[in-house]
Each structure stands twice: as C-alpha cells, then as structure tokens.
TrEMBL record:
The keyword Repeat applies. WD repeats lie at residues 395-436, 437-478, 479-518, 519-558, 559-600, 601-640. It comes from Gymnopilus junonius. Gene3D superfamilies: 1.20.1280.50, YVTN repeat-like/Quinoprotein amine dehydrogenase. This is WD40-repeat-containing domain protein.
Amino acid sequence: MASSSKHPIQNKKNKSARRSHQPAYNATNVPQNLSQTPQYQTLYIPVESPPTPAPSPPSVDNGLPAIGPSDQQNSLASDNTAQDPAIRREYITSFLDSCSPEELLFISRTITPLLKRDFVSYLPPELALHVLSFIDEPRTLTRASRVSRNWYRIVRDETIWRRMCYIHEFDDWEAEAEALSERNRLRRKKPKDTHADGGQNAPDHRSHRDHSKSFSFRRHFRNSYIIRTNWRKGGELLSSHRLPIVSPDNGTVTSLALDSDWVVVGLASSMVKLFSAHTGVLCRTLIGHDSGVWGVCLVSKGGHRMPAPDGPIASGNIEGSDLLYREAGNNVQFNLGRPSSSLSEELSRLNLQKRHDGAHVMPSEFLEHLIPQAMQKALGLDILEGIDSSNAERDSGQSMSASSRGWGQPNSIVVSGGCDKTLRVWDAKSGQCIYIMHGHTATIRCMRMLHNRPIALTGSRDSTLRVWDVQLGRCLRVLEGHDQSVRCLDVCGNKVVSGSYDSTCRLWNIDTGECLHVLVGHLHQVYCVAFDGEIIASGGLDTTVRLWDAETGQCIALLQGHTALVCQLQLSSATGILATGGSDGRVITFSLKNYQPLHLIAAHDSSVTTLQFDKDFLVTGGNDGRVRLYETQTGNFVREMSEPSQSVWQVAFIKDLCAVMCKRAGKTVVEIWSLRPTKGKKTRKSRKIAQAEGRVEVIPGSSSKWS
C-alpha cells in the first residue's frame, strides 16, 4: 500500500480511477486572467489495488492449435525416441519407481501381450506342422489349439493326428473307416426300401449326423484315447440284468457273442437273449430250442460277400444254385436235387408249424424260396445278384467275441445250436426264426461262422463236423474222421481246425471237405484249439500246449507250465503272443517267436473259465468269481473289472464294449460295460421311454420274469 501511494499509476484504468478520485477546483483557484500561467500542484492520493484474477491461459491468437493430452504423449514419445537408450532406460526406471502398485499392474497387463509372438502363425504351414510334429502328448496339442484361431486351424490338421495314431498305436482305423463307409452305404439304401415287412427296415433312431460323418484321424485318436483310459479307470455300466435260476443247471450261461450292435447270450435253459450294445436293454428273448443252447454266433449286418475259391458263390456241389439264388424271391421251384414234392405240399407242411417257428429243413431239402419275403430280405437273398465282392478280403483269424462280418445282408443274423441237435438261424432285428436245420444226431457242442460268407461250421458229440449255408438253409457237407466227440473248433479263411476227445486235432478244407492233416500228439482229450492260418495251438487234459505247422502238420513246439487241464487258448499273430489258461488258475503268455514263456500270471484261485486279449489288455475270468484286467505286454495287474461273484461263466469284449456273465447271490447276472466316450448319461427313465416306443420288445412266448 505504501508503494501505491508514492508512485503514480501508469495504466489507463488506474488513470481513470485517479481522475475520478481527484477533488474539483473551485472558482477561487481558477485564474482570473488567462494570460496568467496557472500554478499546478501534484497531489498523491492513496488508492487501494483492485483484486487480481488468476492467470489466463496462453493466447491462441497466434493461429496454432492447442496441445491436448494425446499430443503431449506423442511429443513425449518422440522426445524419448531421440534420446540415448541409456537415458531412456533411466527415465523408464524413474517413472516406474514413482508408480503405485495399481499402476504397475496396469502396465504389466498392457505390455504382456506386446512381448508375445505368434511364431507358428508366421511360419509357412509346412514348417508349422513340422514344429508341432515333435509333440507326442495329446494334452499339449489340445492346449495349443486354444491359443488362437490360427493355432486351432493348424492343430486340427489330419497329418498331425495321423502321426499321433501311429505313436500311440491306434492303428486300427481301417476297420473304423470301413464300418463308417458301410453305415453310410446302408443309410443311402434305406430310403429306397418299401417297408413291406411291417417297419422292420425303418430307419433306426441314431442321429443323421453320425452316419454322414467322414473319417477323421483326430476323432479316431480322441475316441481311442478315451477308450484306453476307460479300460484302465473303469467304464460305464450300461445295465446289470439278474435272471432267476429255476433249477441248478438251466441258469448257466454257455455261450456269448457280441458286436457293436448286439450282445447275444446262450443259456442252458434253452433260451437265447439279445441285449442292445448301445443301451444294455434286453431287446429279444429267442425261444424255440427244446433244450440247452451250447453255442451261439453273431453275424454283423452289412459287409462284402467273400467269393469262394472255386466260383463266385459257395453253395456246395449243386448245379444251378446261382439260378436258384436269383429266382428265390419269386417263389419259383427248381428240382435241383430237391425231393419230389409239390410247392403246395411244402406250404401245407410249413403252415403246420408254429407261427413264430422257422422252416424245418431236413437233409437234402431246399426251402429257402418258401420263407417269407421279409426273411429273404433279412438274409440278403433279394440283393444277392448285385453283391460286389471286389472289396472283400480273406480273413486272417477268428474273432474271440464269436462274431463275424456279414456278407452284405441288411440285418444282423444269430445262429444257435445245442442239445436238441438242431441249428437255428434267427433275424436279430425282428427276432423271427428263419431256419431250423436238422442233421446232427447228438448235441451240437461248438460252432463258428466264416467272415463275409454265409457259412457256419458245427462240431457235435456225434463225432462229425457239418458245413452249413445259413443263407439258403442247407447242409453243404459232412466232415467225418474223428472217433469221439468234437469238443472245439476254430476257423481261418477257408480252413477249420477241430479238437476231439479222441486226443487228435484235424485240419479241414471247408470248401472241399478234405481232411488236410491229422495232428497226433496229445495223450488225453483235446479241450481247446486256436488257429491263425499258419500256426495251430491245442491244449487238453494232459496239461500241455502243442503248436503245429498248418502247412506241414508237424508239431513245432511243446509248451509246459500248467499243472492241470488247459481249457482256454488264444493265438494272435498280430501281437506274436499265445495266451493259455488252465484249471490250476494260471494264465501263461508265450512268445510265438521263440516259444518261451513271457509272463506267468497267478490270475485266479480256481479254474480259468474265460480268457481274451488284444494288443493292450488281457481279461480273465475264473470260478473264484473274479474278472481281472492285465496289461498284455507286461503282465501287470490293472484292476478288477467287476464286483466279486460266486463264479464267472463268460467274458467277451470288443474295443469299446465288455460283457460279463456271472453268478451272484444265486442268480445269473448279465453285466454290459461301455468303454465309449460318454455323450450324456442314459437314465432308467430314458430306457423306459425307449421300451414304450417299441424299440425294446420281447418275442411272444417269452416270460416277463426274464426281462
């Protein structure tokens, strides 16, 4: 305030304020005479300074735009770019030191993606696939597919998963690809069917998408990997059926066969039961045998017909049988070795049979043209003329699951035989009996079906083998030579090996009926045989296992190790392993290269009743009520396959399905286990709905207590 009172104010505003505060001059101060020079005196008046506002922003009158925050960042970045790297690092360090933890976290999240480089996407596809080929762990590939869309596309390449199939030995894709192709072929043919059989050929309830898929190595690897894991850790129990045992003998499960669609069980109670391999539901009870069933075989639907060595169609030595095939659907009668009886007489005889019974075929009779048209279609008689056998390949061995590949027929076929000395042929889809073939004079003890041919072989206690055409319903030839009961047989290609209680084995040509070799060496009855086309294995009551050369008939090895009856055998040329099971509870695996024992497994406390293995696992069942799983290559125990029971009768499995037949709490128990990848749990309610919709039914004449 003192300075303001001693210095004059220079700006215009202060000057105006100064003038407003100066006092007015009176008349006495005005000079009277203008000529006189006025005398002025400077007066200093104290004035308070006005309030000073905040500084104004810089003026933009110079025509330059204002600098915003982003421009300041850009200018800062350009300034830092021009500086020395050491100075930049020092600046960044000081900047980071001044940041709060929240800001540091933000900085970390911001710069982390900038430090990643998608090297796979920048590489050419060939190099990217080469880099990924060094990964042999499927979980790593699965995680890599989730990185980005490019990685997902590269990882899904089929070459990667084909290599993974080789590494993990999932090299059975040819069978899966063929089965998928067959399903697609049948699906394309179904719309052309007329459904004249009451809807038996109507499309099934599987999704359309499943049929239209093309083969994928990635999908094959995924399914195989999950199936192998389920074998080790346990699959899903589809169903567990308990069948009451009325008498001590009639509840025994004598035979078992299964494929990807059906599980067929033969019982000593004269019944054959069919279960769905997809749901485990009891679908059919086949009644017709007069006494116990001792053998069942299952022929899968589809397939390709195998040509016989001496012609396109194997039907015995009957001339003109090709013509009979083509005219079978027209009910035309041909006198080709047929007994002299008119068509009306044949029809009258058939009308006397039960409604659900099949056509009784005696030796030298030919009645295939008299069966209903629906059954002709089920057997594939209506499409026989157009069957293409160019894709068929001769089989290298018999399936241990007692199932065989079809000859092109649209429906699965069940063949059964037993104590009533007859061989019955059934349509699995409808449950109808098609043929009842007579010829044996004693119990049919064993049977086998050829792959891709409608040929069945049976061994009987009448010491003979018979060759049957189950499509035409006729006996083609009788193989005679054994002196006692035929206990077992096995087939490969067009040859069959039979083992008998006369202590010998015989090798036969199926198409000619010729006995090629008589294998003599066992001291007691032969109970089991196995045949892979080159080597014959036989075991019996003398506790030994003998290996024979199928070409020369000479014994090439004598294998010992069991202390009791050898009752189970399986031979696999693919794995080079022979597995034997005996009444002493032991399971021994031998090498087919040097015939030395590989593993001696104390599998059970009593007799081994069933045995089967593949390249991964060995499954055994015994009279001690246990079902055990072992590794085939190491012999190590993996786990128990089922709950303990009183005794185990039969166990059979395919890649993704296992069936266990046992006795538990005084009842026959049928357990069906699925090892497939789960697509959602099937509840009991959904199975009841399936039964209500008619997809599950019991053939008339069966008792509800068996369901």
